[in-house]
Design a protein that fits this description.
With 587 residues, this protein is α+β, with helices and mostly antiparallel strands. The chain folds into four domains: 65 residues, no CATH class; 248 residues, no CATH class; 116 residues, no CATH class; 97 residues, no CATH class. Helix content is 24%, strand content 32%. The protein contains nine helices and 31 strands. Strands 1, 3, 4, 17, 26, 27 and 28 form a seven-stranded antiparallel β-sheet that branches. The chain has a five-stranded antiparallel β-sheet with strand order 6-7-15-10-11, with no helix packed on it. Strands 18, 19, 21, 22 and 25 form a five-stranded antiparallel β-sheet that branches. β10 and β11 form a beta hairpin. It is globular.
């Protein structure tokens, strides 16, 4: 029995023991002639045999209730695993890597390079243990790099910010001369590298203004003026588990918030750049609290990476009489299994292995028939179990099914060995990676002179605990259905969801709750908008949700960050027949 199970069982036992004594008191008071000595609520019996009987009954009833509760919670945990596995899995440590490309990565025809999703990076922690990280999504690296960034107040600086009171100024250098054209623009992702609340303030300052941006090339004095629309936010909803769950983007946004601190600058103009460019991003005068953010708070050529990686499991000797198998990682310590990618069945007669389909994804995945028919009716399923383990992440089990009822099970030829391949994390070790630790890129096609981390990766335990998840499951289902039907859930339910899908101390959860508490709630306005698609005109219903704030207090910090996410989120899940938008409004 695990440490958690022991604690839970002890609580149940104590409650039942107290209940037996209290019930004995009531029965004794109601029937003094039949049970004059049964009132033991305020004293223990002098007879040890009586105490032994009471404690034995309490122990027996506690065992029954505890096992029943464990079975019920196992059901909810395994149900949640199939619809929302992230909730019961450890949260892999995430960090942002700064990439410095080699000069020969670019040429006249190629001024950017792409880092594919799942590109592997490695680093040694303070204990000299290797930690593996994978890029979360595809990212563009350009030959332009931000050399310096700073906040300018015209009252305290002589720098030219073109009749604006306040602005962010970026000084960029190019690794090689650039020839930009309108049809050959550069999209440059920029990462906001600061503490959480400073980052939110910078984000709000950038996206609360519609003033144009100014660009000067090399030593030219006349600026190129670009529309503010050339600055866009970057939200990417790739799932670690390829999950179809519609609440996943909300989970990802709150738990992996550092990867959302990117915005994109589109450099679209006709100009040759020899050495450098200067970008001025004006901001509104109300943002007068940014003077302490320092310099170099904006970084180029950065990529979010997560401490998850492919790893082989210890091979399993298959046995048709065994119900399920415990999975362990091959040759690794302090490694947690996040999920299982695949399982291959090995046939000793032919020496070949065959990929088995996953039971819950057979309809979603096209399975190629094995050349050997005997394994075509096998499939597998996995589950996470938190009983009989002292590991916070629980134990991972896999079960093999024979899925053909027309064949006599006794005549089935069983695989000799099973070879599982999993997605794993060693997040506890990743916590010991210092800021600015050097990383190695394991893709030889990407030419990088240096790679280092910007902050300490932070590993977290699973958001959901083992007990009390039936109500959570019901709420997740209802909220999922309401989001699908494009309804807005009430604030209290939304806050409950935030608590269920995050761990304590999450800053984005605290930020959203604060924003909701300072608002008067969402107000919906319905309309019909004209939309053109493939040269045809359509009239599409639109719901505009306004998050109202009082004019006296103004729009709170972080509201734009939250609103931009909601717009991207609902645009990601919307269908063609309905348009949804969000905005913050003062009343």
């Amino acid at each position: 029995m695990s440490k958690t199970s022991n604690q839970d069982f002890l609580g149940i036992y104590i409650n039942i023991l107290e209940e037996l004594r209290e019930n004995g008191k009531i029965f004794s008071q109601q029937n003094p002639e039949l049970a004059p000595y049964l009132d033991l609520s305020y004293r223990k019996s002098n007879d040890p045999e009586t105490e032994r009987l009471i404690e034995s009954f309490a122990y027996m009833f506690a065992q029954v209730e505890h096992k029943s509760l464990m079975a019920q919670n196992d059901y909810s945990i395994n149900f949640i695993q199939n619809i929302f596995p992230e909730l019961i899995s450890p949260l892999p440590a995430l960090t942002i890597l700064k990439l410095i490309p080699e000069k020969n990565s670019f040429n006249k025809e190629k001024n950017t390079t792409t880092i594919p999703k799942n590109t592997l990076f490695t680093a040694l922690n303070q204990n000299n243990i290797q930690c593996k990280f994978s890029s979360i999504h595809e990212m563009i690296i350009s030959c332009l790099t931000i050399n310096k960034s700073h906040y300018i107040d015209s009252n305290n600086s002589s720098q030219n910010i073109y009749s604006n009171r306040r602005a962010f100024v970026l000084n960029l250098e190019t690794i090689q001369p650039l020839e930009l054209q309108s049809n050959n623009s550069i999209d440059m992702p920029v990462y906001i590298d600061s503490d959480f609340y400073s980052t939110i303030s910078i984000y709000d300052a950038i996206f609360s203004s519609d003033k144009p941006i100014y660009i000067t090339v090399d030593d030219e004095e006349t600026p190129i003026v670009l529309s503010r629309n050339n600055i866009t936010f970057k939200f990417n909803f790739d799932s670690l588990y390829n999950s179809d769950n519609i609440i996943y983007p909300l989970f990802d946004f709150i738990n992996c918030y550092q990867k959302y601190f990117f915005f994109n600058i589109n450099l679209k103009f006709n100009k040759n750049i020899k050495n450098k460019i200067r970008i001025v991003i004006p901001i509104e005068e109300k943002f007068d609290n940014l003077s302490k953010i320092g310099n170099d708070f904006l970084q180029s050529n950065c990529i979010p990476v997560s401490n998850h990686f492919e790893s082989k499991m210890i091979p399993i000797k298959a046995n048709k009489d065994k119900d399920e198998y415990l999975l362990r990682v091959e040759g690794e310590s302090e490694v947690d299994i996040l999920n299982i990618y695949s399982i291959k069945a090995y046939d000793s007669d032919s020496g070949e292995s065959y990929l088995l389909p996953e039971y819950h994804n057979q309809k979603k995945t096209t399975i190629l028939k094995n050349s050997k028919d005997i394994y075509n009716d096998f499939c597998w399923a996995s589950r996470r179990n938190f009983t009989n383990t002292v590991k916070e992440s629980g134990s991972f089990y896999v079960k093999i099914f024979f899925n053909n009822q027309n064949v006599n099970f006794d005549n089935v030829v069983w695989p000799d060995y099973l070879f599982p391949l999993g997605n794993c994390t060693n997040g506890i070790e990743a916590n010991y990676i210092k800021p600015y630790t050097e990383f190695n890129c394991r893709n030889n096609n990407i030419l990088l002179s240096k790679v280092y981390s910007l902050f300490v990766p932070k590993y977290s335990n699973r958001p959901l605990k083992h007990f009390g998840n039936i109500e959570i499951l019901k709420l997740l289902y209802r909220v999922n259905q309401e989001i699908v039907s494009k309804k807005i859930i009430n604030d209290s339910e939304f806050e409950k969801i935030l608590e269920y899908i995050t761990t304590k101390g999450n800053p984005v959860r605290a930020l959203i709750k604060q924003i909701l508490h300072n608002s008067n709630g969402f107000k919906a306005e319905e309309s019909v908008n004209k939309s053109i698609w493939k040269n045809q005109v359509y009239f599409v219903p639109e719901i505009s949700y306004k998050l109202n704030f009082s004019k006296k207090d103004g729009i709170p910090r972080g509201a734009l960050f939250f609103i931009n996410f909601l717009n991207s989120y609902f645009n990601f899940i919307r269908d063609f027949n309905l348009s949804i938008s969000f905005k913050a409004e003062l009343i």
